[in-house]
UniProtKB/TrEMBL annotation:
GO BP terms: proteolysis
Organism of provenance: Adineta steineri
Record bears the keyword Coiled coil: yes
Protein name per UniProt: Peptidase C1A papain C-terminal domain-containing protein
UniProt-listed CDD domains: Peptidase_C1 (cd02619)
UniProt keyword Glycosyltransferase present: no
Lineage: Eukaryota, Metazoa, Spiralia, Gnathifera, Rotifera
GO molecular function terms attached to this record: cysteine-type peptidase activity
Record keywords: Coiled coil
Coiled-coil regions listed in the entry: 130-172
Entry-linked SUPFAM superfamilies: Cysteine proteinases
Residue span, Peptidase C1A papain C-terminal domain: 26-80
Length: 176
């Protein structure tokens, strides 16, 4: 995922949202789901745009769609472990081509020296630890290729199921 961003491709994710996700609206920091969150289960799902990452924070920089009054001017920081977990993150799609790719540099930070997660307003005793890990570029590329191949295969299967569910007349029109 970091490799995708490093190559200039943001990606859209679909994650499970827990009660603790609301903390991000105040501080800009979305914590890992707490034990209480896990017991109560997700309150829903939400799509977000991952547009950067911070090694210092061990977190992805994420754009929410709820306006500039949410989080840090509409952005938040979500730990790597949250977004890389198949339990919490259900889909990820790279954005490789847009009509206008001039996003400006209004909120870009060229120095990765600030730990955004340190700004979390309160200590949470059952918060999961964020662990640092190293990943080689080649391994990241291989993981991304595997993810894309699996995603494409899933999409082919879904399209086939949709075709099978189509009335015969519509199938003939599509194939003709």
């Amino acid at each position: 995922m970091k490799s995708c961003l490093a190559h200039g491709f943001p990606f859209v994710i679909n994650i499970s949202v827990f009660a603790s996700f609301g903390n991000g609206g105040k501080s800009g920091v979305v914590p890992m789901p707490t034990q209480t969150d896990l017991v109560h289960g997700a309150t829903g799902g939400h799509a977000l745009l991952v547009c950067g990452y911070s090694e210092e924070s061990q977190a992805f920089i994420v754009r929410n769609s709820w306006g500039e009054d949410w989080g840090e001017k509409g952005y938040c920081y979500i730990p790597y472990d949250y977004i890389t977990s198949p339990t919490f993150c259900h889909e990820a799609y790279a954005i490789r081509k847009v009509e206008n790719d001039d996003f400006g540099q209004d909120n870009w930070c060229w120095q990765d020296s600030e730990n955004y997660l340190a700004n979390m307003p309160e200590h949470n005793p059952d918060h999961h630890a964020i662990e640092r890990f190293e990943i080689e570029e080649e391994e990241a590329s291989a993981n991304f290729r595997q993810f894309m191949e699996e995603t494409q295969e899933d999409m082919r299967e879904q399209m086939q199921e949709m075709r099978e569910d189509m009335p015969e007349q519509m199938r003939d029109m599509q194939e003709g």
